[in-house]
Amino acid sequence: MSSPDQTTPHPDTIAAHAGVAPDPANGAMTAALQLSTTFEHTADAQTPLGFLYQRQDNPNQQQLESVLARLDGGARTLFFATGMAAGAAVLQALPPGSHLVIADDTYFGYRALITRFLAPHGLRHTVVDATNLDAVRTALATTTTLLWVETPSNPRLKVCDLAALATLAREAGARLLVDGTFAPPPLQRPLAFGADIVLHSTTKYLNGHGDAMGGALTFASDDDLAIACYDVRRMFGSSASPFAAWMTLRGLRTLPVRLERHGANAAAVAGFLAAHPRVMAVHYPGLESHPGHAVAARQMRGYGGMLSFEVHGGRDAALATAQRMRLFTNATSLGSTESLVEHRASIEGADSVSPAGLLRLSVGLEHVQDLIDDLAQALDQ
Ligand code: PLP
Questions:
Q1: Residue of 289, 284, 320 lying closest to 304 (CA atoms)
Q2: Is the CB of 82 under 6 A from ligand 1?
Q3: Which residue, of 73, 184, 188, 296, has the fewest CB within 10 Å?
Q4: Could you tell me where the Polar residues compositional bias lies (predicted)?
Q5: Catalytic (active site) residue 124
């Protein structure tokens, strides 16, 4: 494959060079960590070098934001302390009394945030199955300002049609936000399909090593909502530390390579599970039997490292299977080098809509045969 032109390198090249440039002061190749909380300004508070106070902007954060904006193909990226903080900033920046349409299988934390904390302040919302375009069309009202979807979704790996949803949102005068945490760039680039905002929990694949929290919003244009989200970050203090930005930029340099291995391992694991007699269903968009396979093939470059499956025997059988796993650790989160398993209904609690027999896997970078052997021993007992 060749690059479209000399000035637009492939995402793999952008990632490999993230934060890498000889420092004019000493020739160091990797970006320095700048922890200063404050920056010199003129007597009348002008900032000739562009930085005033760490809570607003800082060099490490700006480096990360510019790389992520390029990878997402957006006009501007804002980095936050967590994925929750990034999502909350969008909701806080919406005009008072806004109506939001949100997909049914979005990350449960956002649904709790909306119903428990923001609905009492006037944010109205409708939950839809975003794979059903007629249902989305019906749910979009004249007062809807935002359509919020996640693809593939957590934890059922539902895939929704980004181009079709972008058209529906535009016709209704709403913006489309896509939580792309399960499929970061270059795997999926929602802005190229007409989305207005991409949301990432960078805690997951973008950092990729399970050791730095973060969230990001990439905007297709540097519009009023982007500016409002910047203000929310500044005023609510939801900025990340420069160290988190530095760690995330470092992780990002290997992102495309890691995603290839995550995807290859997950595809093999999904194939193994789909053929296992104790497994009732496998949710992985790379399987031809997945209802969203054709859409995923159109809008993704590979199918990612996340999958979930349901065992015969419901909750007890799922818990026993998870308990027997040795290489897959029972732990929350995803997108790190090591494989994780989680019984989502247990972690999501009383409001969970996840099937009782469902286990979610974050398939890591181990040798795939070791992963399959572990699943086999856990399922076969
Ligand atoms: N979006 C998705 C799909 C997630 O799975 C998560 C967390 O698990 C989040 C957002 C929230 O991100 P964070 O944990 O960084 O706040």
A1: 284
A2: yes
A3: 73
A4: 1-10
A5: no
106 lines ligand 1 (CB under 6 A): no
CATH 3.40.640.10 spans which residues of the chain? Answer: 11-250
Distance of CA 316 to the CA centre of its chain: 30
The whole-number average pLDDT for the span 213-230 is 98
pTM for the structure as a whole? 0.96
Mutate which of 80, 106, 203 for ligand 1? The one with the most ligand atoms within 8 Å of its CB, which is: 203
CATH class of 255-380: alpha beta
Side chain identity, residue 354: S
210 lines ligand 1 (CB under 6 A): no
Q: Which sign does the torsion angle of CA 104, 110, 116, 120 carry?
A: negative
- Whether the pLDDT of residue 139 is over 50: the answer is yes
What's the CA gap between 104 and 86, in Å, rounded?
20
The mean pLDDT of the chain is: 96
- Cβ of 185 closer than 6 Å to ligand 1, yes or no, is no
Q: Within the chain, which residue ranges are assigned CATH 3.90.1150.10? A: 255-380
The active-site residue, picked from 70, 76, 111, 204, is 204
Any idea how long the chain is?
A: 381
Residue 1's pLDDT band (boundaries 50, 70, 90)?
A: very low
Q: Give yes or no: 57 in active site.
A: no
Q: Which of 57, 70, 104, 107 is catalytic?
A: 107
Instruction: Look up 179 and say whether it is catalytic.
Output: yes
Q: What percent of the chain has pLDDT over 70?
A: 98
pLDDT of residue 6: 53
Which among 180, 185, 167, 162 is positioned nearest to 12, based on CA atoms?
185
The dotted CATH code for 11-250 is 3.40.640.10
- 7: confidence class by pLDDT, cuts 50, 70, 90: low
Catalytic: which of 55, 124, 170, 315? Answer: 55
CA of 164 to the centre of ligand 1 (A): 25
Q: Is 55 a catalytic residue?
A: yes
The string of pLDDT tens digits covering residues 20-62 is 999 999 999 999 999 999 999 999 999 999 999 999 999 999 9
How is the beta sheet containing 197-201 ordered, strand by strand?
A: 76-80, 215-219, 197-201, 175-179, 144-150, 99-103, 124-128
